Amino acid sequence: MGFLSIRESSFTFGGPINYDKAHAGAIVSLVAAGGLSGFAVILAITLVAIRSPPYKGTHVVAYFLSLLFANVLQAVGTTMSARWALEHEVTAGTFCSFQGAIKQAGNLGMALWSFVLAVHLFNLLFMRRKSTDLGQYLTLLIGWFCVFFLVAIGPLAIKRKEKGAYFGPTGYWCWITHKYPLERAFLEYFFEFLSASSACVLYTAILLCVRGNIMRSNGRWRFRFVPPGQSWQLALCRDIIDTSMMRIVARMVWFPISYTILLLPISLARLMAFSGHKVPFWATILTGTIFNLQGLVNVIIWVCTRHLIPDINALPVFTTPRREIDLDSSEIHGITPYALPPSPIEPASESKETSEDLDGEDEKLHTVPLSALPLQTAGFLDDPEIGLNRSDSNVSYWTTNSSDSQNAMIPKPKWSAALRPTSWRR
């Protein structure tokens, strides 16, 4: 049964609604999406706890586990809608209020820890600043305190008797009721959009920095654009840390991108409902299903990224400062590759004459008058085993000048292509 076959409803986030069989079946599909995400996240948490990840000493594990735990809260809040599918009705009460609180905590937790993870990686890979254990514990404590404080402040301090319950039926599940529109906007939507936009900016800055486009020169941060054909110049600004982390950062950018993509559909549906427009039931279920796949998508990105992380123990400490390069110096352009121009091609006749002249000169260089030889050469020439072959110069290893028979023949070395001096090569 597809979503398009379900009739439209006057969904306004404003009160209880009775389910028919079509609505109940669609809610079951929404619950299944939440259950799938929850199962994937719990499996990922188990693997992280059992295996020692290569980035264990960077505090990334604690923040990433917090993000996964927020995904679990969201999945739990979604699967609680199974009760409404079975009862064919959403009713106010303790269970409904608990579902609304869990859903808000999960949504706020995902927004907060996505932002914290982006800030931590920015501080580690861009600024090269050390993160202490005390800072990690304080971040975890303050972060989760803020999440539960924003959830609890509604029913404990903001709730008004004349407005009714703070958490209650809001259509097909329970959440902040339509009597508190400002609280919806500023206690959840604001943090979700702030986290998505900020994380995208931070991850983009990290990627450009480790790639070499953003560099520090003369105490100032500079942006450097290099044409695609000269991208090799960017490697001159990278050290071993940036080179090792470039691939993983390029994939971690998908965390905020995926969060933004999955957040936009349900946000548009909510804005349409708040403005008084009727939202089709199929659109409500479809956007809710997409949004509740956050946990599954985070796990998939983590699985695809995990094997790219280098061994942190084999790298220098992340606080190692980057070397500064003067943009006005020739160092920034590296060593420009060059090639020697080819030798000009000479006419064939001139080349032949030149070759003959060189051969003649070569023979003369190897021709020595007999009288100039030392006395020991007489025995050398009289040796019968060393024959002088004047009739077949092609097989002779001796150089002969027929115009002067009194000249002794001295062996002329013959060079192979492999042993020929480099100055002879063209």
From TrEMBL:
Q: Where in the cell is it found?
A: Membrane
Keyword check for Heme, yes or no.
no
- Which controlled-vocabulary keywords does the entry list? Membrane, Transmembrane, Transmembrane helix
What cellular component terms from Gene Ontology apply here? plasma membrane
Family matches, as PANTHER family: G PROTEIN-COUPLED RECEPTOR 157-RELATED (PTHR23112), G PROTEIN-COUPLED RECEPTOR GPR1 (PTHR23112:SF37)
This chain belongs to the protein called Glucose receptor Git3 N-terminal domain-containing protein
GO aspect biological process, one term: adenylate cyclase-activating G protein-coupled receptor signaling pathway
From which organism does this entry originate?
Meripilus lineatus
Extract the GO molecular function terms from the UniProt entry. G protein-coupled receptor activity
Q: Which Pfam families match?
A: Dicty_CAR
- The UniProt entry lists the main location of this chain as membrane
Q: Which residue stretches belong to region Disordered?
A: 337-363
Segments traversing the membrane: 26-50, 62-86, 106-126, 138-158, 189-210, 253-273, 279-303
Which Gene3D superfamilies does the record associate with it? Rhodopsin 7-helix transmembrane proteins
Record membrane topology: Multi-pass membrane protein
